[in-house]
Amino acid sequence: LSIPEVHYAVDCGVGVNTDRIKSQFEGGAQFATSLATTSAITFDKGQVQQNNFDTYQIIRMPQSPKKIEVHIIPSTEKPTGVGEPPVPPFIPALANAVYKLTGKRIYELPFKV
To answer: Does residue 112 lie in a domain region?
Structure first.
């Protein structure tokens, strides 16, 4: 699964540090890509099998989205947090994109396409 571009629109109130906002969303896109495509937690007899990065797979640079655009909506409202908002909408949006391309719905993580 290749993700060429990711586009976010964020309404976080006054953008105090726009570079920091963008970097949070860029990191969130990387994390969400890992969750959607490679990261899995498995159990054996009730025990988690992944205990470090040698057994818990995350994406590497070649699997990263090639372009991440963050559009900050101008606002005069008080600033809000931007650390968590990038991740929750990413995976459903990606699942819908896969459905649009393949006609196949995805219900489990990581995706098996």
So the answer is: no
pLDDT in tens, 21-52: 999 999 999 999 999 999 999 999 999 999 99
Helix then strand then coil, % of the chain, to nearest 5: 30, 15, 55
Q: What count of other Cβ atoms lies within 10 Å of the Cβ of residue 38? A: 17
* Domain CATH code at residue 21: 3.30.365.10
Q: Would 39 be classed as within a structural domain?
A: yes
Q: Environment class of residue 41 by beta-carbon count within 10 Å: exposed (0-12), middle (13-18) or buried (19+)?
A: exposed
Domain that holds residue 94: 5-102
